[in-house]
Structures are given as C-alpha cells and as structure tokens.
Amino acid sequence: MELAIVAAAALGVVAIVSTRLGQRFGVPALVLFVGVGMLAGTGGPIGIEFSNFEVSYYVGVVALAIILFYGGLDTRMRIFRAAIVPASALATLGTLLTMLFIGLAAHALTDLDWLTSMLLGAVMSSTDAAAVFSSLRGRGLPKRLRGTLETESGTNDPMAVLLTLSLVQAIDGDHKVDYLAMAGSVVLELVLGAALGLAFGWLLKLLINRVELVNVGLYPVLALAGGLLAFGATALLDGNGYLAIYLVGLMLGNGYLVQRVAIVNFMNGAAWAAQLIMFLLMGLLVVPSRLWPVLGTALLVTAATMLLARPLAVVITLALLRWASRGRYRFRPREQVLLTWAGLKGAVPIILAMVPLMNRVDGADVIFDVVVVVVIVGTLLQGFTLSPLARRLGLAKAEPPPPKLRLELGGEAPKGAAVLAVFIGPDNRAVGKRIVELSLPREVVIAAVLRGGKLVTPRGQTVIEAGDHVYLIGANLREDSTPAAFGRKPRASTRAATSTPKAPSCRAP
C-alpha cells in the first residue's frame, strides 16, 4: 500500500515538473503525461504492471467530466452563443463524416474488415476537450472561431460514443445497426443533456449564492459535487452527461457567483489533476514494444485523419450549414483551415478505444495501438504548429483584456464585501479623469491602481490612464455591474457626426 502511494506520488511529481520543460520547448502536457506513464509502465525501465482497462475507462470518464466542467466555467456566454450553431453541426454531422472518412482510409491502409475499420473511425471521430481547451487558451483566436472549436469538443462526445457502441454491437452480431434509431438517440441525448444541464446549472448557482457555508473552502467543493451530480443524473436518465456538466459550468461561470475566484482556482487545479491521472493511467496501459509493428500503418492513418478526414468533414459540414442558413453562418477559407488543423485528438479516442478491448472485439488491440500513435503524433504536430499557422493566417491577435476579477473578503467582513479588479480600456469613461472627479458610490473606494506592472498608490489627483487595472473595494461589487464611472464612453451617432458643422480653425496667424 505504502509503496503504491510512493510510486503514484512520484509519477505525479515527475509529470507535473515536466510541464515546465514542456512549456519551454512547446511540448503539449498530454504527451508528457502519457510519456511518463509509458516510461513507468510494463515496457518501460520502471516496469509497473497495470492492465486494468475497465478501471482506466471509468477514471477517464470522470476525469473528462471534470475537465468539461472547468471548460464551461471558463467560457463566456457571448462566445458560446455565437458558436453554438456551427459547433453543433460539426459535433453531429461533422463527427459522422469524420468516422466515414477515417474508416475508408483505415480499410484501405490496414487488414481490418469494413465494420472494424468503421469502428476505428468512430473511436477517433471526436475532438478532445482537454486537448482543445489547453491548446487554444492564450492563442488570441477570434471569439467565434475559438468558441466553435471549444463548444464542438464539448458536445461531440455523445455522437462518437453512440457510433462506437453501435458498431461494437454489430461486430458482436447481437444487433444490426439501426441508423434511424441511432439518429434519434443522438437527438434525444443532446436535448435531454442540454435541458438538464441548464436546469442543474440554474439550481446550483442559486444554491451557492443563497447558502452561507461555515468555511469558504466548501464553496468549490459544493460546485464540483453539484456538477458531478448533474453529470451522473443526466446519464442515468439517458441524456448526455458531458453536455450537461459543460452547461452547468457555463451557467456558473457567467453572471454573479459567490466566491467565484475560489471556485475557478479550485476547478483549475482539479482539471489539471484529472488530466494528470487520466493520461498517466493511459500511459501505463501502453506497451511501447507493441507500437512498433503498427507504427507505419498508424502514421498513415494519422496523415489520413489530419489531411483528409477532418478537412473534408469540416468543409462539407460548413458548406451545408451555409446553404441551410442562407449564408448566415459563413466561415472564410482561412478560418476553415484553422478549424481543420485545431481538431485535436486526445483522451476521448483513447477512452473509446478501451470499449472494444473490454468487449473482446477482434482487432481491438490493433485499434488501441493505432489510436495511441495517432493521438501522440497528431498532438505533437498540431500542438507545435497551431500558433505559427494561426499567425500565418492572420487569425492570432493579442489576447483581449482580462475579465473583471472579483475576490470576496473573508473573515468578519459582511457578506457581499469584495475587491473588484477592473481593466481600463481606451473607451472607458474614467480615462483622463482624476480620481476625485469620479462619481463613485459612497460604499466603494479605489484601493490600488496597477500600471505597467507597477503599483500606483491612489490619491485624489491620480489620473486614470488606459491600460490601468483599478482595484475597487466595497459592498455589493459584482462583475456584471461595474460602477457607472467605469463604463464605456457613449458612441456618437453617425448622423450627428455628419450633420454637425465643422468648427472653424483657431490657429494664430
């Protein structure tokens, strides 16, 4: 028991510390965690024996739910609304087309029969939330583009799961594939998952904001427990638990939320821990010596996935969406290129590759080994080249100003007392004004001004400048309700600007 704890903790420490080197050289964390697991596994120098696919599968399911919860918590509602329609199209039709094209390529490149080839395509058909979230944050991509990729990765799992389970049943000979029933199941899962996710999210947010817990540290635990409750309850009711927990996070992350900073920081750590555990276990399952015989085939499947299946699925899906919406949802060619290249694979394909193994499907070991190679190679290639490609396409911009940060005061402070950090953009009303000239509420004061990385002590004569971070302290401060003194300047109407006569020049002779 003690030896197992020491081994697990040591692997965790090595994997976490390796992320610093990974950041320096641009290696994705997914590859590092899987690599550490492979080195510690049966075929590595340490030789830890672990081959329990069932335990790994269920650990992966829970870990993915936690990652999606944090992904929703960190997504702005306006981005989600702008992306939901194209993301839904890619998550359904795009996933189906990806399966078909990968299956065709696999059948041509391997000795697998048609059904097993399509099973490989189904396993690899979805993009991975953990890989997409970690790869896109901080890239400065346009909101709709980033939102489409993130929302797609959070909603395409049910389609991939249904396709995988249906094909496993068909290969076993227990059932014939009923495509109409499959389509109905997908629609029902998505609708039920969305409805229950929004309902649980609203109730959980109401509970967190109303209840007064004895310790601040319990609020993040309550949020996580509520999210997992929504995930499990939705799955029990035959809904999509992944979509439900993503929407719960989205509901909590937008609008007023008590102890937001504590909840977000806790969930950020929980999501990293989930990724660490999930990928370490998957690395332990991989036997490196088994990858060599399928390496050539797996590399060809990787190329077919990245250069054929995903591009065709994206282009066809978006073309049909543009036609159906009469041009409302239109993506420029360079945006479609980035949508294609950013469809990263990660934990989900590896988790789904365990399903054929647990059901003892012929060729399941080949599917698992091929998927591992595709995920590692694809993540390395796309992870290294995503930022340069986005810059080359002119789609990578400077990150927008950070959102307002609210930190509640603990201890004996009254409920609602908080510190609120406000970024001062160039169109902010406070720009150019002295603090004494700002019409602040009586219960609100400016505690500090951060300017150019230096702390400025606020005085009455201190002038607010664009780019400042102003820290307010007071009661009833909320992210969605900034004091009017820090609102945006009203824009002059075009008509007024054109009808107003130009003032005469007053230059001295």
Summarize the topology.
Blueprint: H1 2-25, H2 29-40, H3 53-73, H4 77-109, H5 114-123, H6 129-136, H7 143-155, H8 157-172, H9 179-210, H10 218-236, H11 241-253, H12 260-285, H13 288-291, H14 295-324, H15 333-341, H16 347-358, H17 364-392, E1 405-408, E2 417-423, E3 444-451, E4 454-456, E5 469-475, H18 494-499
Antiparallel strand pairs: 1-2, 2-5, 3-4, 3-5
Helix pairs in contact: 1-2, 2-12, 3-10, 3-11, 3-12, 3-16, 4-5, 4-7, 4-8, 4-14, 5-8, 6-7, 8-9, 8-16, 9-10, 9-11, 10-11, 10-12, 14-15, 14-17, 16-17
Name the descriptors.
509 residues, mainly alpha, Na+/H+ antiporter like fold, Alpha-Beta Plaits, 62% helix, disordered C terminus
Characterization of the model:
This protein is mainly alpha-helical. It folds into 2 domains: 2-392, Na+/H+ antiporter like fold (Up-down Bundle), CATH 1.20.1530.20; 405-487, Regulator of K+ conductance, C-terminal domain (Alpha-Beta Plaits, 2-Layer Sandwich), CATH 3.30.70.1450. The chain is 62% helix and 6% strand. It has 18 helices and 5 strands. Strand 3 (444-451) and strand 4 form a beta hairpin. The longest helix is centred in the N-terminal third of the chain and has 33 residues, at 77-109. The radius of gyration is 26 Å and the shape is globular.
